[in-house]
User: What shape does this take?
Amino acid sequence: MTKRVRWGWLLLALTSVLFVVLALGHRTGNCLDAPAESAAASTCSTSPTLGVGGALVFSLGGTGLAAYSLRRAFRRDRGD
Assistant: This one.
């Protein structure tokens, strides 16, 4: 049995990791400004653009695809 790299699977693994990093790196936010005459404080919040649930699903799916692709990229050939 020989071991060889399958470059297509390796490229898919790297691309899926890149998409996950880019998608989770993009965030959205909003701010509530309190009027100057009130004693209230202004607040701001940020969250992933996909939402928390979407970010979780996207990151688990991308990580699973990367793991599967890496397994396929570096698996041994079966000799007949």
